[in-house]
Amino acid sequence: MVGGNPLHDRFGFRYWRDPGSFAEAYSTGSLGRFCGFLTCLVQASYTVSGPDYLSMAAGETENPRIVLPSAFKKVFGRLMAFFVLGSLAVGINAPYDSPELSDAFKNEKPGAAAILLISLISFLQVSSGSAVVLTWFVSIITASQLINFSVIAFTYTRFKKACDVQGLSRDTFAYKGRWQPFLAWYAFSGCITMVFLNGYAVFIHGNWKITSFFFSYTTVGVFPLLYFGWKILKRTKVIKPEEVDLHKDVEEIDEYTRNYVPGPPA
């Protein structure tokens, strides 16, 4: 940016001015730039998975009350660095109308896309037919992940409500999230919104494709069928906040923490 590159070119944020920081999509002017931003936001939703994988391993983690809070903080920091700063670096170094990018996607020239993120390079090796299948795969996985995170966020709001009703202070926890439950409701609203915007492009005049619609919104119909089907078949009920068992297995965890002895480094 400041001339330290091989060309000694101090380009700064040149490409943010010309051709601009937002590419137009499906329209022109402000609406086109908004659609371009929304398209990127939908694609970025595919990368939302990651932090939830740590919680899956919580039950098998050694000394979880000490290890997991630190692990969650590090994961979020690294995701911000890799995805946010990585996208910023690409936007600074390459204009959206770069001929190299156009060649990579239109003429199937993988070598022309060296300035793309490393995580996307492997996608450039597929044929046009495989690329279409990949797009369908990304759409259905994106919707599934967004629904997954919306359920996680909503579940946390119910957990927070149960803590409040039963008088359990979150200050006694090994880790306490800030600004709750407002951030949980924000995450829930954002994920639900993106679920329905996942395939918004098919509703634009001239873009309708039944396959794109199917792969973008199938999970929206499947999820309630699975949820209510489980409720009906297993005869389960929604537990009220005052009835939630917040102390199950806590004594065993407390005893494990008190008696924990660190093992030798691996």
Structure description:
- The protein is globular and about 65 Å long.
- The chain is mainly α and 266 residues long.
- Helix 7 runs parallel beside helix 9.
- The relative contact order is 0.09.
- It has 10 helices and no strands.
Please give a quick description of this structure:
With 266 residues, this protein is mainly α.
| Beta-strand residue percentage | under 5%
Q: Quaternary status of these chains?
A: single chain
Stretches with pLDDT under 50, minimum 5 residues: 111-127
Distance between the termini: 42 Å
Q: Major sheet: size, sense and barrel closure?
A: none
The gross shape turns out to be: globular
Q: What is the helix/strand order?
A: HHHHHHHHHH
Helicity level, as a percent range?
55-70%
Number of helices: 10
SSE inventory with pairings:
Elements: H1 14-20, H2 29-44, H3 51-56, H4 64-93, H5 99-106, H6 118-121, H7 128-166, H8 182-197, H9 210-234, H10 250-258
Features:
10 helices; mainly alpha; 266 residues; single chain; 0% strand; 60% helix
